[in-house]
Amino acid sequence: MPTEQEHFMAQALALAEEAAAAGEVPVGCVIVRDGEIVGRGRNRREEKQATASHAEMEAIAQANAALGTWRLEDCELYVTLEPCPMCAGAILNARIRRVWYGARDEAFGACGGVTNLFMEGFPNRPALVGGILGEDCRRVLADFFAGLRNKEKIDPQI
Amino acid sequence: MPTEQEHFMAQALALAEEAAAAGEVPVGCVIVRDGEIVGRGRNRREEKQATASHAEMEAIAQANAALGTWRLEDCELYVTLEPCPMCAGAILNARIRRVWYGARDEAFGACGGVTNLFMEGFPNRPALVGGILGEDCRRVLADFFAGLRNKEKIDPQI
């Protein structure tokens, strides 16, 4: 029986798998208020050629539209990969109160991987828990990058 | 005779004034490549009720569309107020090579005010110069907040 956190992270993971199938770095995100999903997002950076189209930003934009406000203080955010500085900053700006992530990101993570923006003295400090379905979240990324390397071996032009 | 930096910051300042006239916290931004403006943005957070609609994010989205790519490595960014963590993170993600800002932000600044994301060990480190037309950039913000306080005195319902 999955916990509530595993249930919502599985939804985010399904979005990450959708991103992988579309050739995007597989990251997915859902935003939850009162036990209901109010925003979903997955990485669409290549599709849109938009710097900001990370999973969290897409989910925040959808939650903004659903709730009619830029303030998401009653919301919790689930994301398969530790947020980068842009997304961690957007979480701070939205006043999201709690963040659950799957895999840690030692290269770009701004919630402990490289730095921790939630501990830097900004006015709000979301609660933070990592490692929810961590192994599954890591695997979808590892499989994606292994697939890219194999493609390069077959066709070095890619 | 204004310098090149003052010339572009004046364009950002005009966008900040447009934001103030629309009742938004007055911040404006332009993105420049090869001496030409390829993206303009101003704060539209209240109008759109979108967490991400800061001046820099709007300008980055416009530059993405103009150039057809999420990578802005040949670009420089001018903004009237020191970027917040979200916008500084987007600047890192876009690989923007240089940032010129006007006023420092001791409450939310992520380029020295509270923290400095450009010095944290992420893969790229944009060059950074503050204080371009700093006094003018500070004044447009101070006037806006003084106006809000006066309104509250006249009508405490606001």
Automatic annotation (TrEMBL), chains A, B:
Question: Which top-level group of life is the source organism from?
Answer: Bacteria
Q: Which residues are in the CMP/dCMP-type deaminase domain?
A: 3-115
Q: Show the HAMAP family listed in the entry.
A: tRNA_aden_deaminase
Enumerate the active-site residues.
Answer: E56 (proton donor)
Q: Which UniProt keywords apply?
A: Hydrolase, Metal-binding, tRNA processing, Zinc
What range does the record give for the signal peptide? Answer: none
Q: How is the cofactor bound?
A: Binds 1 zinc ion per subunit.
Under the heading PROSITE patterns, the entry gives:
CYT_DCMP_DEAMINASES_1 (PS00903), CYT_DCMP_DEAMINASES_2 (PS51747)
The cross-references to Pfam families, in alphabetical order and at most eight, read: dCMP_cyt_deam_1
Q: What does this protein do?
A: Catalyzes the deamination of adenosine to inosine at the wobble position 34 of tRNA(Arg2).
- What does the record give as the reaction this protein catalyses? adenosine(34) in tRNA + H2O + H(+) = inosine(34) in tRNA + NH4(+)
Which residues are listed for Zn(2+) binding in this entry?
H54, C84, C87
Cofactor annotation? Zn(2+)
Subunit structure, briefly?
Answer: Homodimer.
The family annotation for this protein states:
Belongs to the cytidine and deoxycytidylate deaminase family. ADAT2 subfamily.
To which species is this protein native? Oscillibacter valericigenes
The EC number on file is 3.5.4.33
What name does this protein carry? tRNA-specific adenosine deaminase
